[in-house]
Amino acid sequence: MNIETRKKGDIVIVDFEGRLAVGVGDELLPKLIEQLLTEGHRKILLNLSEMDYIDSNGLGELVQSLKTSKRFGASLRLLKPHDRVRKTLRLTNLLPMFTVYESEGDAVKAFATDQT
After folding, report:
1. Sign, Cα dihedral of 37, 5, 10, 78
2. For residue range 98-107, what is the model confidence (pLDDT) as tens digits?
3. Cβ–Cβ < 8 Å for 77, 112
4. 3-state DSSP call for residue 50?
5. Angle CA 44–39–63, to nearest 5
6. In whole angstroms, what is the distance from residue 109 CA to residue 24 CA?
7. Whole-number Å distance between alpha carbons of 102 and 79
8. How far from 58 is each of 1, 9, 10, 66, 80, CA to CA, in Å?
9. What is the rounded end-to-end Cα distance, in angstroms, of the chain?
10. 60-90 pLDDT, tens digit each
């Protein structure tokens, strides 16, 4: 798994590539999210367009990251989940928990209009 972060205004975009699964950077996502929140970032966009696989462990990390973000008063949203990842989120009934965008531009605009 490869993870890179970049900023667009006050939004931190986390670009994923690869798999979020058992044994692949366990707890990497929650630790990264907590670090971003501790640094004061309150708008986080997870770009899942290049994440081609997620298992139950990865789903748990996503949910944990969402809960941690809410506890900090932050907004964590998803960008263009890969078809396989979207299907897994839908089958596990987790998709409705997340705000999902199909384009980075739409996500940036939506964050800009929110008071988060």
Report:
1. negative
2. 999 999 999 9
3. no
4. strand
5. 40
6. 33
7. 6
8. 12, 28, 26, 12, 17
9. 29
10. 999 999 999 999 999 999 999 999 999 999 9
Residue 79's SS3 state is strand
| Cα distances (Å, whole numbers) of residue 18 to 13, 74, 80, 93, 113 | 16, 26, 14, 22, 31
For residue 25, give the DSSP letter.
S
Closest CA to 23 of 73, 71, 59, 57: 57
Domains and CATH numbers, the chain: 2-113 (3.30.750.24)
Regarding pTM above 0.85, the answer is: yes
The answer to whether 97 and 60 have CB atoms below 8 angstroms apart is no
The span from the CA of 61 to the CA of 40, in Å, is 20
